[in-house]
Amino acid sequence: MPEDSIDHIDFDLLNTRAISQPLITHMYTADPSAHVFNGKLYIYPSHDIDAGIPFDDEGSHFGMEDYHVISMDSIPGKPIDHGIILHIQDVAWAQKQLWDSDVNYKNGTYYLYFSAKSYDGIFRIGVATSKSPTGPFIAEPEPIKGSYSIDPCVFQDNDGSFYMYFGGIWGGQLQKYRNNIYNSLHELPRSHEPALGPRIAKLRDNMLEFAETPKEIEILDEQGNRLTEGDNSRRFFEASWMHKYNGIYYFSYSTGDTHYICYATGISPYGPFTYRGRILNPVVGWTTHHSICEFQGKWYLFYHDSSLSKGVTHLRSMKVTPIHYNADSSIQTIDPYNDLKI
pLDDT per residue over 188-210, tens digit each? Predict the structure, then answer.
């Protein structure tokens, strides 16, 4: 929901009607990436700060500088902030804007994948490693070769393979790429043309490199046609997430300017994925970003809104709520404020 549309909101009422409250209140946290390691829940959010940068469509006001990790033994439960696990000053190639990240684990090492803007003004994806899920993480000296744009999600399939999903339009710069090549003259497709899809690349065994050239993912409508750019209540904008339930691959994402978390399903990690519906209706704040994780036998949606900051777009707070699957494998749509219209 745009920041210029919040004047009418009664935040006391909204917070009373909210289905969940912020997990962390001593700082602002967003883009929560949730995983279970050794039976404990770990959440890796972005850390929002007031950088004093004016709002624009490129997201310049999101001036995040570091990452924290939050752990929980149960839901509900007490979230523990383990402090800074990586700072922009410790990433040699990155100039600013530590945006969304994700973490995964292999053979005794935890891998933190993160998006940041390099000194040439281009977003790339880096990786940092640690022997502990709570860090600290040590960044590789260069970004992943062939990486670009934002919002990495790393998914481990049942056969042990790891795949990275990434990309975001507008400030995430995905519209500048065709066939993995950057050109500043490229813009979004026309409204009747197929929308830009997120990217996928399998990771090498060392978890530090792409094993293949990134591929574009197709998101299809019920008739098998690619969603168009003008279909902005369903097309991909940013915030890729992949999870698997009952053998089905669920690719979920944000529609950005229409403020939905949607999902599509398929039978391969590469897709194509067929649009199935909405997981989360709009929250207060311009962005919406999420992860989905099973913990102690239940499935949860981790997301954020700007209710704690009373609608300030770049000062968000992460939340969690259960999700429920129907018998036909669809996910029940969640209203974040118990049907209260915002």
Answer: 999 999 999 999 999 999 999 99
Active site residue 65: no
Active site annotation includes 31: yes
Place of tokens 């929560």: 32
Question: Can you tell me the distance from the alpha carbon of 157 to that of 244, in angstroms, rounded to the nearest whole number?
Answer: 8
Task: Tell which residue, 53, 59, 29, 33, has the closest CA to residue 44.
Answer: 33
Residue range 31-64, pLDDT digits in tens: 999 999 999 999 999 999 999 999 888 899 999 9
Given the residues 31, 151, 229, 305, the one annotated as active site: 31
Strand, helix or coil for residue 17: helix
pLDDT tens-place string over residues 83-136: 999 999 999 999 999 999 999 999 999 999 999 999 999 999 999 999 999 999
Specify whether the backbone of 285 is left (phi greater than 0), alpha (psi in -120 to 50) or beta: left
CATH number of the domain enclosing 102: 2.115.10.20
Catalytic, out of 48, 229, 238, 305:
238
Could you tell me the two tokens for 232? 């902005």
> Is the residue at 329 inside a domain?
no
Distance CA 317, CA 23 (A): 7
Across the chain, which distance is largest between two alpha carbons, in Å?
Answer: 52
Backbone angles phi, psi at 14, to 5 degrees: -60, -45
Res 163: pLDDT: 98
**Residue 110: CB partners within 8 Å, gap ≥ 6?**
37, 103, 104, 129, 130, 131, 132, 133, 135, 137
Distance in angstroms (rounded) separating the CA atoms of residues 60 and 99: 11
Alpha-carbon span 49 to 260, nearest angstrom: 24
Strands 219-220 and 273-280, bridge-based pairing: parallel
| Number of domains into which the chain is organized | 1
Domain range enclosing 60: 3-322
Q: How far apart are CA 95 and CA 60, in angstroms?
A: 13
